[in-house]
Amino acid sequence: MEPMSLIVFLIVGLVAGWIAGKVVRGAGFGLIGDIIVGIVGAFIGGWLRAQFHLIPIVAGSTLLNEIIYAAIGAIVLLLVLRLVRR
Question: Which region, left, alpha or beta, applies to residue 58 given φ > 0 means left and ψ of -120 to 50 means alpha?
Fold first, then answer.
């Protein structure tokens, strides 16, 4: 993986994790926590998009679309974790 691709990957994870933290908890998880939640959420969001043939979100930018799908996946992750912990 090229250094620039890795940086973009980490930024998408950070933004998606931060958004998911704000939506589900009302606060983020810190820098590393947001990145981890966002990266796992990106995998979940990609899987959901592939499995359920979700209509592609057209927001004018591929990067923005990936952030949206990663945030959706991260939100699903956090909601499932919340249910499992109870």
Answer: beta
Measuring CA to CA, how many Å separate 54 from each of 27, 66, 80?
A: 28, 13, 20
Give the C-alpha separation, 3 to 85, whole Å. 37
What sign results for the dihedral spanned by CA atoms 63, 68, 71, 76?
Answer: negative
Q: What is the pLDDT of residues 2-14, one digit of tens each?
A: 888 888 889 999 9
CB atoms within 10 A of CB 38: 30
Q: For the chain, what are the domain ranges?
A: 15-85
- Going by the DSSP 8-state scheme, the letter that residue 28 receives in this structure is -
Contact at 8 Å (CB) between 24 and 78? Answer: yes
